[in-house]
Amino acid sequence: MFQKLLANAFNFKEYCNMAAKKLSIYLFTIGAVFTTTLILLFRFYQIRYIFSVFEKYNPVPVLDIAYWITSMVFERGVAPSTEETVFFDIISVILFGLQCVIIGLFVFKVCNLIKRNILLNK
């Protein structure tokens, strides 16, 4: 009985590791596509509300980190150059994708802990 429980727990752990890898790839892709869409809409149509929503409802200050990284790479002038703007957009997309991965994996681990506790208590 105990060996069967251990075997099921091992398979559950292996399944969780495989699912976490797939989930991280999906979440990074979804976050990157979402951010790219918002940035393209903002750059081409100059809709100010898109950028303010992206700035306001972001749980991690991704844009502050992107500003900081951009200022470390480029010397700040009177107005941002084209290269600076493109670099900022690319860094924003990468950071937002990584943020989606971290938040998604955290939620995934919490859900697995809850499922494991429910399965073990039955």
Provide a descriptive summary of the structure in words.
With 122 residues, this protein is mostly helical. The protein is built from four helices and no strands. It has one domain. Helix content is 86%, strand content 0%. The longest helix is centred in the N-terminal third of the chain and has 44 residues. The chain is elongated, with a radius of gyration of 20 Å. The mean pLDDT is 75.
Summarize the structure.
By secondary structure, the protein is an all-alpha fold. Helices cover 86% and strands 0% of the residues. It is elongated and about 65 Å long.
Q: What is the fold's blueprint, element by element?
A:
Blueprint: H1 2-45, H2 48-56, H3 62-73, H4 82-121
* Secondary structural class: mainly alpha
Count of distinct strands: 0
- Characterize the main sheet: none
What is the count of structural domains?
A: 1
Radius of gyration: 20 Å
Give the overall shape.
elongated
Listing every helix as H and every strand as E from the N terminus to the C terminus, the arrangement reads: HHHH
The number of distinct helices, counting runs of at least 4 residues, comes to: 4
Low-confidence stretches: none
Brief descriptors of the model:
mainly alpha
